[in-house]
Write a structure and sequence with these properties.
Elements lengths: L10 H6 L3 H9 L1 H8 L7 H14 L3 H7 L1 H4 L12 H14 L2 H9 L1 E10 L2 E11 L4 E8 L5 E3 L4 E3 L1 H4 L2 H16 L5 E7 L6 E5 L2 H23 L11 H6 L13
Parallel strand pairs: 3-6
Antiparallel strand pairs: 1-2, 2-3, 4-5, 6-7
């Protein structure tokens, strides 16, 4: 399958290739990942649209994007008719804060946008779409619109961790670095250029070290074949038991006995 901007997010592409987002979905909950893959569940459509709206604004395509998603983004009545709804106003403010950073503007100016790459990792076909790719240095930059930069509680692991680890951006860095290496024979930096949707937006400029990405790619190589087998139907998915999908679909068959204080 030859990927392009029109079919990158298609059902066929999702079945043919694994991506960072799909790997993270399987890593979080195999059962919900299969449901998402089969079009039976999607709990992040609003966040997905907000992220694309943010990218459209910083890349100068705001009007075109608002026309395409007018019913979702723009208010249809009252004094705010024709203006972005409250959550999307926060995205606009975030994008404006982003665009006040000369370093971010420089990155956008010297990089090509939405570069699609494919390759094999541990025998599994992977795809990626790089936000901003600098071919001269083989460096890449991913633009993020975040709620905030506070640590996030990882319910599965039972502890707080930095937002960029909790959202799995180290996996994205490792996967995209590997695909760049396979396609260009080398790689540069992977960085996050981000702004928040807080009342007063904050900004952040981060790069992942080679050590962080080396550790992450080893995890990807270990688990990607297992997740690919689940996609093919060769293995049954395991529920995590704590995500919203599991809460909606769980069928209790027996009680859990309490034998000590927990």
């Amino acid at each position: 399958m030859q990927l392009n901007s029109s079919n990158y997010f298609s059902a066929e592409a999702m079945q043919t290739y694994m991506s960072t987002s799909q790997f993270k979905q399987f890593d979080a909950c195999q059962s919900s990942a299969v449901a998402i893959l089969n079009g039976q569940y999607d709990d992040e459509i609003e966040a997905f649209i907000e992220g694309r709206y943010f990218e459209a604004i910083i890349c100068g395509h705001r009007e075109q994007f608002e026309e395409e998603y007018a019913e979702r983004i723009l208010s249809g009545r009252g004094a705010t008719k024709g203006e972005p709804k409250s959550n999307y106003r926060a995205v606009v403010a975030s994008a404006n804060a982003f665009l006040r950073q000369p370093a971010f503007i420089d990155i956008l100016a010297r990089c090509e946008q939405q570069t699609i790459l494919t390759g094999l990792i541990a025998g599994v076909p992977f795809k990626c779409k790089i936000d901003f790719f600098d071919r001269s240095t083989l460096s890449e930059w991913d633009a993020k619109c975040m709620r905030n930069f506070q640590k996030v509680y990882n319910e599965r692991e039972g502890h707080y961790e930095a937002w960029y680890f909790e959202r799995g951006y180290h996996y994205q860095a490792a996967i995209e670095r590997e695909l760049i290496r396979q396609n260009f024979g080398g790689s540069g930096q992977f960085g996050l250029i981000a702004a928040t949707k807080e009342p007063v937006p904050n900004v952040s400029w981060l790069v992942f070290s080679d050590e962080v990405m080396d550790n992450a790619i080893e995890i990807v190589k270990e688990f990607a074949p297992k997740y690919a087998a689940i996609k093919r139907g060769d293995r049954a998915p395991e529920p995590c038991g704590i995500c919203d999908y599991c809460k909606q679909t769980i069928i209790l068959t027996e009680p859990r006995e309490i034998i000590e204080y927990e």
